[in-house]
Design brief:
The chain has helices at 3-9, 16-26, 30-35, 40-56, 62-66, 72-80, 99-107, 113-122, 127-133, 138-145, 180-194, 204-218, 257-266, 275-278, 301-321, 324-328, 348-359, 361-374, 404-419; strands spanning 168-173, 197-199, 231-239, 247-255, 283-291, 329-337, 377-382, 388-389, 393-394. By secondary structure, it is α/β, with parallel strands linked by helices. It folds into three domains: 3-80, no CATH class; 99-145, no CATH class; 158-419, 3-Layer(aba) Sandwich (Rossmann fold), CATH 3.40.50. The protein has a seven-stranded mixed sheet, with helices on both faces. The protein has a two-stranded antiparallel sheet with strand order 8-9. A hairpin with a 7-residue loop joins strand 3 (231-239) and strand 4 (247-255).
Length: 433
C-alpha cells in the first residue's frame, strides 16, 4: 500500500490542519477524502477553509465563494457533481509568474521546501537555478528536490490507554510553536544513536510516533507540530551510562500547545482525560519549554513573551492547587529552546539563567517556592537542534558536524538520569537522591 493510501485509510485520525497541509502541499483532493469516509463535519470544515484560502489568494471570485453550500449535504453533492475544479499543488501559494520572481522569493526565505519542490517539478525553475541563482549547496538542492513530509496520525486519547504505573512521567509542556516536538525528536534521535533507549511494551501508537520523530530528524526534516488537541505518551527505558544495568522507566508525555494554552485560560478541567495521567501515582518531571525565538527580534514579541510567562505561571499554580506538584513532582526543567539564536559568543547555560531571571522572574519564583516547600528540583537548560532552512529542514543534520544534536540532548539525558527513579529499585530508591 502506498504512503498516500495509508494516510487516506487513517484520514479521520489527522487534524484539520494536517489535512489542509496535505491538500496544499501534497496534492490530495477533497473527493479522495470523501471516498475514504472522512467524517462529515471534518470534510465540511476543511472544505470551507480550503475555498476561503483560495479566495484570499485571488484564485476564486467573491461570487464563487458566496455560492459554496453552507451545509454538508449540499457541499457533498457539489463535490460529487464536479462543481469545484481540482486545485494543483502550489495553488495555495501566491505563486510568482516568472522564474526570476520565484528565485527572488526563495532568496528572501518566503517559500518553503514543499513549494520549491513543486516549482522544480513543474519546470518553472531547475536544480541549476537553485545552485547558481540562489547559491544553495548541491546537497541541499538534492534534499529539496526529493523533499517529502509525511505526517503521522495520532488517535484520540481514549484509544491510547493510560501510562504504565511505576514509571516516571516526563511531561513536555509549552505554548504552540515553542519547540516541544523538535526537543522530543532530538532526545529520541540521540538516545537511539547512543544505544541508551530500551523499547518498552505499552502504547504502540506512541512507539510509532517516536520512530516517526527519529526518522524525520535523521533525514534532516523538522517534525510537524503536534496537531491541535493531541496528547500522546511514549514509554521508553533510559539506560544510565554511569550505572551499567540500571534503567529508568519513563513515560514521555506530549500535549499540544493549543491544549496547553486552553488550560492556562480555563483551568485544569481543560485537561479533560489527561487529568487521569496527572493524578496517577507515578513520579513526575515537568519540562517547561520557552521559545526564545518568540521573545526576541522585534517589538511585537514583547506581548508573546508576556503570554508565555503568564501561561506557564498559571498552569504551574493550577498544578499546585490540584496537589499534583506536592504529591509527585521530583523536578521542573525549564528549557529555553532555539538557543542557536542566542547572541554570538555567549555561554549558553549562563545566558539561559540570566535571561530567565530577567524576563521570567515570576515563573522562576514559583518554581523556587516548589523547591523549598516540596523538594521539587529546578533546573534551567538551553536547547537547540541547530539552524533550520526553508521552514521545515535542518540546515545540517549530521551530528558529527551539527553538535547541537549531541550536546543539548546529552545534557537533558544527564538530568533525567539524575532525577528519574530507577526500575531497579535496589540500585536507587525513589527518594534516595
Amino acid at each position: 500500500m502506498s504512503i498516500k493510501n495509508q494516510i487516506l485509510k487513517q484520514i479521520n485520525n489527522y487534524s484539520n490542519e494536517q489535512i489542509i497541509e496535505l491538500i496544499k502541499e501534497r496534492g490530495f483532493v477533497l473527493e479522495e477524502l470523501m471516498q475514504n469516509n472522512i467524517e462529515e463535519q471534518k470534510l465540511f470544515d476543511i472544505g470551507t477553509i480550503f475555498f476561503k484560502d483560495l479566495y484570499d489568494l485571488g484564485k476564486i471570485s467573491e461570487e464563487s465563494l458566496r455560492s459554496i453550500p453552507d451545509d454538508y449535504s449540499r457541499f457533498r453533492n457539489a463535490l460529487l457533481d464536479d462543481i469545484f475544479p481540482p486545485v494543483p499543488i502550489g495553488a495555495f501559494s501566491a505563486a510568482p509568474e516568472s522564474k526570476e520572481a520565484v528565485l527572488e522569493q526563495i532568496n528572501k526565505g518566503e517559500i518553503g521546501a514543499g513549494e520549491i519542490k513543486a516549482f522544480v517539478s513543474s519546470g518553472l525553475i531547475s536544480e541549476d537555478d537553485l545552485l547558481f541563482g540562489c547559491g544553495i549547496d548541491a546537497d541541499m538542492v538534492k534534499r529539496l528536490v526529493h523533499y517529502s513530509n509525511d505526517p503521522i496520525a495520532i488517535p484520540p486519547l481514549e484509544q491510547l490507554g493510560t501510562p504504565a504505573q511505576g514509571y516516571t512521567d516526563v511531561y513536555f509542556l509549552g505554548i504552540p510553536g515553542s519547540g516541544k516536538t523538535c526537543m522530543m525528536a532530538s532526545l529520541f534521535y540521540y538516545l537511539n544513536r547512543k544505544g541508551l533507549m530500551v523499547p518498552m511494551a505499552g502504547n504502540q501508537w506512541g512507539a510509532n510516533y517516536r520512530n516517526h520523530l527519529i526518522t524525520k530528524l535523521s533525514s534532516g526534516l523538522l517534525p510537524e507540530s503536534t496537531a491541535t488537541g493531541v496528547i500522546n505518551y511514549m514509554p521508553i527505558g533510559l539506560r544510565d551510562p554511569d550505572k551499567p544495568g540500571s534503567i529508568h522507566s519513563l513515560n514521555i508525555i506530549e500535549m499540544a500547545g493549543e491544549r496547553f494554552s486552553k488550560v492556562s485560560e480555563g483551568g485544569l478541567n481543560e485537561f479533560e482525560q489527561v487529568l487521569g495521567f496527572l493524578r496517577n501515582s507515578n513520579r513526575k518531571i515537568f519540562t517547561i519549554i520557552i521559545d526564545y525565538a518568540q521573545d526576541t527580534s522585534t517589538e511585537i514579541y514583547k506581548n508573546k513573551r508576556t503570554q508565555q510567562n503568564l501561561s506557564l505561571t498559571t498552569v504551574l499554580m493550577q498544578l499546585e492547587e490540584s496537589k499534583i506538584i506536592q504529591k509527585g513532582a521530583d523536578a521542573i526543567f525549564i528549557a529555553l529552546t532555539k538557543s542557536d539564536l542566542f547572541p554570538s559568543g555567549v555561554n549558553p547555560s549562563e545566558y539561559t539563567a540570566e535571561y530567565l531571571r530577567e524576563h521570567y522572574a515570576s515563573l522562576i519564583s514559583i518554581c523556587k517556592d516548589f523547591e523549598y516547600k516540596y523538594g521539587t528540583a529546578l533546573k534551567a537548560v538551553p536547547f537547540s537542534i541547530g539552524s533550520s532552512a526553508f521552514n521545515s529542514m535542518l540546515s545540517v543534520y549530521d551530528p558529527r558536524v551539527n553538535r547541537a544534536l549531541d550536546d543539548y540532548p546529552a545534557e537533558l539525558v544527564s538530568l533525567l538520569n539524575q532525577y528519574a527513579h530507577y526500575t531497579n529499585d535496589h540500585k536507587k530508591g525513589w527518594f534516595s537522591r
